[in-house]
Design a protein that fits this description.
The protein is built from 3 helices and no strands. With 53 residues, the protein is mainly alpha-helical. Helix 1 runs antiparallel to helix 2 and helix 2 crosses helix 3.
Length: 53
């Protein structure tokens, strides 16, 4: 059995979380910022929401 590696590196996750927090002021809700950033990173909104929380 092979060991699975996470599809996103820790650097990508940190950058995505930082971008989501920086863009909160441009959106009505935190989730709005998350939904706008997630496609740019290549993950789902729920994945980024999980990372942020």
């Amino acid at each position: 059995m092979t060991k699975l590696t996470p599809p996103f590196s820790s650097k990508v996750r940190e950058r995505a979380m930082r971008m989501a927090s920086e863009h909160q002021g441009y959106h009505d809700t935190q989730y709005g910022a998350i939904r706008s950033i997630a496609p740019k990173i290549g993950c789902s909104g729920e994945t980024l929401r999980y990372w942020v929380r």
